[in-house]
Design a protein that fits this description.
homodimer; alpha+beta; 7-stranded antiparallel beta sheet; 4-stranded mixed beta sheet
Chain lengths: 463, 463
């Protein structure tokens, strides 16, 4: 009987949802739901009672109010490319996945301002194409570009490859529209470069990982298009030398867009697995640099590299296919690691002047835990953001993650540079955020979502 | 008797404050207090029971807790250069001015990151000097640089002259320390370029005008120093032509740092009052451009200006004294206006493609209100941020302000581009912020300061 009551309630709830978003957009069929219930790493999965796909903020607002009335939890989801379990169902309480799949409208590019308003479900690649068509660039790029959405990028304050020049998503987002837990719609889409009329509501929602609001639209600020590009790969003797080089390049070469780091074990993996010969000798570290400008940026780059004594240790690429060949080395690495097993992927950041010491201590830490563990470190050197990959420990063994995070904290770093906190890192947050900051975060969460129906247990663990 | 009880309470409160910050830093003498109780425009003034000057966040925390216990309100104050009444005492409730005057510590510049941590009471000019000494620039400049503090700049998300290139304060601030109403200290000073571990607490505090927290330290991100500079002043036929020129320059000349607008009545004022002849003919509008780069930026600038058909209508300055002469024209304008009376100074922004229409309608609006009113518009063309000055109406006549703000709202603009909302504009906020945004702001304010002791009636009017 209780079951029947439950079913009647569910039925009424479902038909209520369908009333607002249409029958086709309340997905209950288990086989269709499945792709929303498991993330692409297959590490995170759970069950939802429905996947709901609103067409706009007004529909999302109705859905959130209905969920609030019934105590149904909401898991916002974009491209489902997250790595920290922040966008998949979890726990046993009734929950829906609120998908941005239909929020794919792309507005006209304002060519004077270099801005465009796009739906949260637009992919990063589609945003990049739109920007390019109008003579701009998006100013943000990441490996998951074809699937990751602008809404997800906003919710996580994603960074990626060009953040050292153009900032993380936070800098590119000059307005947004979102729906709060109680259905309130907040909208600021004018994209004014200077606007301090009241609290910067968009700035708080960016990076809140769907726990404070469901983002429905984003106003994006593009950057000017730069046609002349050059890529250089340099073998160096140590991470310490790589850091010094990154600093010289950052301040000495204004056209630098990307400075990536590869280290010994990753370089060896590339040498072992790739068919083509390596363009520079294996070394303790490689630095991969891309410059872009309206005119050829080579001259200044070569000047600075010469001062640093970089000669035969480097490979220089100007034409598109040579550039791609060098860039491919960095892009191939995550795939090669995946082929060797399920690695612990930790996305951490430390102040640049601590990076070398952190790297040495990290190697020692992994060695001491087990001689059979393999550590592969690479990442965004220009931001002090490295991806720590550890092959060997059981995927569910959190002790190794904890040890790395503690090391990061000792160096004044962050346990999340760009992937977000999600579920994975919520319990480690106190390592890098003071009690005062955590208190402030909780007060904000409680104020905006007192029943904690929006993405519960993401970022902040329920007490 | 009630008075005596009141006095005893006050006495205990004062000695409690002195216990934490020292006798010399609880200022009660009316003549010394006076300079904190009145702002520099003399429009805003009120009475406080004491001016309290903590030496650090820990002291500020004790002061805030004491005030919370006694229901004493707090008005944070930096350089007291605000224009909107956000930093002076108001109303009759017991209140203190919490001054950043002793928070003047300047940390070591991290040369790799280009960052420095400074106390909230450090002036913008001192920050600029520190940055320059180490080969950087602050990347923010404004007229009040010698008095305005970094804490005030942070609290208001100030913009200024270089915002089109380097962003407003929000972009330059990569961390901060603040004390919330209940004494909680929040601190994030590592300045990591990528760090999305939890909500971006600093991003919410920046621009909250002292209503959510008292900022005690700021981590500032400098920009690279650019030695080669050029300034050009161009006479144009209309604001519409000025806007088109600004757009071409912004996207065509990467070294552009500043694009300022002067308009007819302001140009006439300069012609009438300055002794030196004007460097270009009087015109409906002037555009003043500054470029800066590590190498001479003239070539590209001249190329773009030639394409725009700018020839004899312009004055070009490369050496420092000629540049200063041109820049002085723009800087002299506010002073000349002040000489003519107390003007209504409204700091508004509109989307750039609406600026010309807004300007025309604004002129008509002022003309229609009274033929004797004088309108002088100038400002930061590159950001669509103009300073509207109206001479003639009584300083307390809010009707003219309201009419201008309504016009701004019709054009999708903001009633506050850089001065902040303060007390002056709180009641106009609903013109440009939706009910949803205002609701979210109130929820945040209530959560962080339930008794509303921190700068009450600033930004949000008490209900």
């Amino acid at each position: 009987m209780a079951g029947a009551v439950q079913d009647n309630m569910t039925e009424g709830f479902m038909s209520g949802l369908a009333h607002y978003v249409g029958d086709d957009n309340v997905i209950v069929a288990p086989d269709v739901r499945a792709s929303y219930e498991t993330d692409w790493t297959r590490r995170w999965h759970g069950r939802c009672i429905a996947v709901v796909r609103p067409a706009d903020a007004a529909q999302a607002s109705e859905v959130l109010q209905m969920c609030g009335d019934r105590g149904v939890r909401i898991v916002p989801q974009g491209g489902n490319t997250g790595l920290v379990g922040g966008a998949t169902p979890r726990g046993s309480a009734p929950q829906i996945v609120l998908s941005s799949a239909r929020l794919t409208k792309i507005g006209d590019v304002d060519r004077g301002a270099g801005q465009v308003t796009v739906g949260a479900g637009v992919t990063v690649a589609a945003l990049q194409r739109t920007a390019r068509t109008c003579g701009f660039e998006a100013g943000l790029d990441l490996g998951a570009r074809d699937t990751a959405t602008v809404g997800g990028v906003a919710a996580c304050d994603a960074g990626g490859l060009q953040a050292m020049r153009y900032g993380t998503a936070r800098r590119r987002i000059v307005g947004l529209e979102a729906v709060l837990a109680d259905g309130t719609i907040v909208r600021r889409l004018a994209g004014l470069p200077k606007d301090n009329a009241g609290y910067n509501v968009p700035a708080l929602l960016v990076g809140s990982e769907g726990t404070l609001g469901f983002i429905t639209q984003v106003r994006w600020s593009c950057v000017s298009r730069k046609e002349a590009r050059v890529v250089v790969l340099i073998a160096v003797e140590s991470v310490s030398e790589a850091v010094a080089m990154a600093t010289s390049l950052r301040w000495g070469v204004p056209s630098v867009e990307m400075i990536e780091l590869l280290t010994e074990t990753g370089i060896r993996l590339l040498g072992d697995r790739l068919s083509a010969p390596l363009p520079v000798p294996p070394a303790p570290a490689w630095v991969l640099v891309e410059c872009a400008d309206s005119v050829d940026p080579s001259e200044r780059l070569i000047e600075v590299l010469s001062d640093l004594g970089v000669g035969e240790r480097s490979a220089f690429a100007v034409d598109a296919s040579s550039r791609r060949r060098l860039l491919r080395l960095r892009e191939a690495l995550p795939e090669l690691i995946t082929q060797d097993g399920i690695s612990h992927k930790l996305d951490v950041g430390v102040p640049l002047d601590s990076l070398s010491a952190f790297y040495d201590e990290l190697r020692q830490l992994v060695r001491e835990r087990s001689p059979s563990h393999r550590l592969i470190v690479f990442g965004h050197l220009g931001d002090g953001n490295v991806h720590v990959n550890i092959l060997g420990p059981d995927p569910d063994d959190e002790a190794v993650d904890a040890a790395v995070f503690e090391l990061v904290a000792e160096h004044g770093g962050t346990i999340s540079a760009e992937h977000g906190v999600g579920v994975l890192k919520a319990r480690f947050l106190p390592l890098v955020r003071s009690a005062g900051e955590l208190r402030m975060m909780r007060l904000i969460k409680q104020a905006l979502d007192p029943a904690s129906i929006l993405n519960p247990n993401v970022v902040l663990e329920e007490e």
